[in-house]
Amino acid sequence: MEAIVLKEKGQLPALIEHPDPRPSGPADAIVEVLACSLNHRDLWILKGKYPGVQPPVVLGSDLVGRWNGKRVVVQPGLNWGSNPEVQGKDYHILGVPGDGAFADKVLVPSENVFEAPVHLTNEQAAALPLAGITAYRVLFTKCGIKPGEKILVTGAGGGVALTCIQFALAAGLEVWVTSGSDEKIERAIDLGAAGGVNYRHAEWDRKLNTLAGKFNVIIDSAGGDGFQRLMKLAAPAARIGIYGGGQGTIRGISPQMLFWKQLKIFGSTMGTNGEFGKMLEFVATHGILPVVDSVWKKTQFQKAFDRMEQGRQFGKIVLQWA
Ligand SMILES: NC(=O)c1ccc[n+]([C@@H]2O[C@H](COP(=O)([O-])OP(=O)(O)OC[C@H]3O[C@@H](n4cnc5c(N)ncnc54)[C@H](OP(=O)(O)O)[C@@H]3O)[C@@H](O)[C@H]2O)c1
Predict the structure, then answer these.
(1) Lower CB count within 10 Å: N or C terminus of the chain?
(2) Superfamily the domain 2-128+290-320 falls into
(3) Atom 2 of ligand 1 has which residue's CA nearest to it?
(4) What is the pLDDT of residues 208-237, one digit of tens each?
């Protein structure tokens, strides 16, 4: 079969022939891929910033495909384990350390295969799984969002961040955003966000405070030195959900602010198969359409990776496979 394979650490991946996956028993499913989408994770892997990479390996965590005559999506978090609070030691994500989604065929546990929501195109369905499960757990399971609350989602242009924006709007929250691009803020407003500020402005937190006041919930994937400003923007008893750390180590957290405001900070990673099923129901009930930034042929995958590397995307970057 054809697949996008990382042949050696530090090299660029290539679209090449790769052995077909072989099921080892009835609990395995071989899904024929129709479309896939990129995640920042794929870039971290290419940059050698992800543990456990053992080439040669097929990249990719997100796909829509066909299995048993049905159009399906795959929950990319494999072998979560028995504790819904945290994944077990055998947990891993599709596409590193095992072979992933950017291939003609993908081997996954059949318990991770779910029917794709019927209202989505192949491109939209490919855009949903990893961002959807991450957004669902951090918003609902961890931060317990409620209608009428005010939420801030940082970095509006990202795949997970945009999904958080869409889910929070559907759940009846007032949504505010930050982004490094004024155009992306405008596009988030077009989706229903109340407003936003550009995190490249020196005083972005003051500006946001003037526009929106304090937030009941804050969802962040940046971390870094900007995080202490998020704590200032948090209302008393606010919940802060962190699912990424693109800007690195968080410094300057004030313990006094943390305890006096009675803040809760939650780390969140992906989610269980149960949460994945609930996420699909939520998407179907609210008719949510994942935002697709751009669609590329599989032969153009390098251009798709470049677009993500340059941070130009608004939503998910999709590879058409079949
Ligand atoms: N824990 C988990 O389960 C989980 C799951 C998925 C992803 N992640 C992590 O979450 C992060 C985002 O993943 P993704 O796939 O959604 O990435 P993506 O689509 O490539 O988006 C990158 C994101 O980074 C934002 N950003 C860049 N610089 C920023 C800054 N200085 N301050 C605030 N935001 C900034 C961008 O915002 P603008 O474009 O609007 O400027 C955009 O939202 C990655 O670090 C990824 O590894 C974790």
Answers:
(1) C
(2) Medium-chain alcohol dehydrogenases, catalytic domain (3.90.180.10)
(3) 269
(4) 999 999 999 999 999 999 999 999 999 999
Is 56 close to ligand 1, i.e. is its CB under 6 Å away?
no
Q: Are 37 and 122 in contact (CB under 8 A)?
A: no
In the reported structure, the alpha carbon of residue 107 is separated from the centroid of ligand 1 by a whole-number distance in angstroms of: 27
- Is the CB–ligand 1 distance for residue 157 below 6 Å? yes
Instruction: Kindly list the domain boundaries of the chain, sorted by start residue.
Output: 2-128+290-320, 133-267
* 181 CB within 6 A, ligand 1: yes
Task: Determine the residue type at 197.
Answer: V
Reported as a single tens digit per residue, the pLDDT across 295-306 is: 999 999 999 999
State if residue 161 touches ligand 1 by the CB under 6 angstroms criterion.
Answer: yes
Given 3.30.1330.30, 3.40.50.300, 3.40.50.720, 3.30.390.30, which CATH number is that of 133-267?
3.40.50.720
Question: Which residues fall within 8 angstroms of residue 150, CB to CB, at 6 or more apart?
Answer: 173, 174, 176, 212, 213, 214, 215, 216, 217, 235
Q: Which residues of the chain have pLDDT under 70?
A: none
pTM check: above 0.90: yes
| Residue with CA nearest ligand 1 atom 13 | 40
One-letter amino acid at 22 equals: R
Smallest CA-to-CA distance from 163 within 76, 65, 252, 39 is with 39
pLDDT single digits (tens) 45-56? 988 888 888 899
